[in-house]
Amino acid sequence: MARFLFKLSAKGVATLVKPGRYADGGNLYLHLSKNGGRRWVFIYTWKGKQVEMGLGSARPGQVGLAEARNRAERARGILREGLNPRQADRAQSEIPTFGAYADALISDIESGFSNRKHIAQWRMTLTKYASAIRDIPVDAITTDHVLDVLRPLWTTRPETASRLRGRIERVLSAAKARGLRSGDNPAQWRGHLDQTLPRRRRLTRGHHAALPYPQIPVFMAELRDRFAPAAKALEFLILTAARSGEVRLATWREINLSEGIWTIPAARMKAKREHRVPLTERMLAIIGPPPVNLDDLIFPGRSAEKSLSETAFAALLKRMAYGAVTAHGFRSSFRDWAAEETTASHDVTEMALAHVIANKAEAAYRRGDLLPKRRKLMEQWEAYCQGRAAPNIQDTPFARTEHQVE
Fold it and tell me: Can you give the pTM of this predicted structure?
């Protein structure tokens, strides 16, 4: 039996990065997910069905190889006694702390996240902001504990507090499903915490400070005087009405110069569907001629292999004394301009912003993406941004747009 055990080494585990399962022997596996998740699993057969039992996170500082082997041996012993390890171990083991269970849950569910940033946000909030309850057994968490965590953030950082509450609720719900706690969820909002905490202000999620569109031509003139890579990328973002990640991670393979189209793959789109953007004369001038390697980034960061950072646009706007404006807010500027200054239909504008059609019945019949009409609209927008089509309205002081554009 010994020759079938201990196939892995602590050093080897630390260096493994390719997604997949790595057997240590004796039903113990190291599972590496595509998005960087690392966890130990014990796989066995119970009543003719394969069962996967999580043994904890394999990240540095959590469950090491030696401890994973101990847990696997305990599970094998339970199997030899004719019992189900998952059920027996749950009944016999000590109740984990909230922190330990939260960490294990994140490792179990992280493969379902499409964005690594979201995984990091889960870990950060449940570590930093929930620090006061991390050492409390998960079955002993009460409403008072949850309120102690939420109240310092509820009015000062309402969006963070709301997300934290939801994540605590998810952890406690999962613990209940595993038989680790019982009763109502103390982090539940409706019919519980909503009776104690004040309702959040409506304006939180999805609103981004935007520059009123009458000020866009002046801003764009200032932007064109800058030669930093971030300035070119930001100008391209504004002209295309695209989102930050769509522009920062764009590659030359997505560009069709002969047809003047930028095709953003579904994986980078918020709606998870491919989006075509008509390229105008100025957009093509910004990106210039293609390189030899079509997999190169169009707007690289400090090196050709790395994209611009998520904070590149915010830093640029701050240097330009527009620190209150966000890159995402320019989508609101575009939509306000389209509504006030053009005859473009609502559908054309929504398509230009890559918004999902809210009416499911209408969406089912819509096959085209209105590309010719959107090309005309984007050409008008480019002319306006370059000051070649002055608006017939009075200039307005800087303020947040009233619209919400995601």
Answer: 0.50
